[in-house]
Amino acid sequence: MRTRRRAVVAVLAAALLTLPLAACGGDEKAAGEGFTVGLLLPSRMVPRWEHADRPLIEAQVRKLCPGCRTEYANAENDVTRQRQQMISMITKGARVLILDAADTRALRSSIQEADRAGVPVIAYDRLAEGPITGYVGFDGVMVGRLQGEALLKALGLKAGQSAESDNVVMMNGDPTSPNAESYRKGALSVLTGEVRIARSYNTPGWSTQNAHTNMNAAIAALGPDRIDAVLAANDNIAAGVVAALKSAGVTDLPPVTGQDADLDAVRRVVKGEQYMTVYKPFAKEAAAVAAMAVAVGRGEDPRDSATTTVDSPTTKRIPAVLLQPRPVTARDVERTLVKGGLYTTGQICTRELLKACARAGLTR
User: What is the H or E stretch that residue 170 is in?
Assistant: First the structure.
């Protein structure tokens, strides 16, 4: 890796003919030295990126490498902007990039350019295409399975006990994200043959507004009283689903899934408006990617930080850390989220939720 960093830096864009070797910091070898870790997150649409992942990663990098600094950029769900941000970070001398790609396919060429420039890219939370050095994320198929199993439980079904008259609406994630397909695959592995998938929609940008629009279409097609459950891929989507159902006059809401354990979603779970969410322990994910980034930045083998390998459509046997998600219903909030340190009871239990919190076993 150090040899590659001393090589001639490739063309990154028409406006950048070459990058100076000094920008890549190829001659700095001391294990304890400081260097720049680039952190590129995809959007502000999902609250966790800014409120959890960014500060956790920055803090962990500082802890592991006091002399290191983190250069941060948010793509605002714009692939072109993220490409420019990658170029800028490499130009400024970032030695390693942590990338949560706004579009895992569209960023492939930029990852290839970074690779030619000798700057390793570690994919975070979404498995990007191209020559990435490592990957840290969660088992997406398991996330979908947990959501599907929760819906079957909420509907009173058990494996092998068919109830195909139950109408389930699938509100999938952004089709540009490989995670979305993993979630859908996991959910269908549980739901297929057990319920009727009455409608299925993709949600560009994981947007609450797009989810609201899609749910309105499902309500118009099926009728507000003929939707027995909604498989919502994440909490943003669940918010749009719940809002559309309430606007349609549905008072006895069907079970709705989610993911990310956003604070607003946790409150909906406690209140009974959302049946469950999937909690992905962000602190563990942030710690794992920071550890891999710092190690790679120091010239160490990413396999030393990995626990397994994964394959992308372009690259085989990528060193990876895959963490385990956890399902959270109302009865799990205190045990998993409060005792786990994600939120305090005071944060969850606003004045209007005090009765609901008491029913869920939460006390301020």
Answer: strand 167-171
DSSP secondary structure letter of residue 39: E
- Span 48-72, pLDDT tens digits: 888 889 999 999 999 999 999 999 9
Amino acid at 302: P
> What does the pLDDT read at residue 24?
38
Question: How many CA atoms within 13 Å lie on the side-chain side of 147?
Answer: 39
Q: How many CB atoms lie within 10 A of CB 322?
A: 18
CA distances 208 to 69, 235, 244, 252, Å, are 34, 9, 10, 21
Amino acid 162: pLDDT: 52
Q: What is the pTM of this model?
A: 0.80
Intrachain domains 2-132+281-323 and 140-279 with the same fold: yes
CATH of domain 2-132+281-323: 3.40.50.2300
Q: Are strands 121-124 and 96-99 parallel, antiparallel or unpaired?
A: parallel
C-alpha to C-alpha distances, 221 to 97, 210, 214, 225, 226, nearest whole angstrom:
45, 17, 11, 11, 10
Let me know the angle formed at the C-alpha of 246 by 236 and 175, rounded to the nearest 5 degrees.
30
SS3 for 256? strand
Whole-number pLDDT of residue 13:
37
φ/ψ (deg, to 5) at 232 = -95, 130
Superfamily name with CATH number, domain 140-279: Response regulator (3.40.50.2300)
Each domain of the chain, given as residue ranges in start order, spans: 2-132+281-323, 140-279
Which residues make beta-bridge pairs with 196?
167
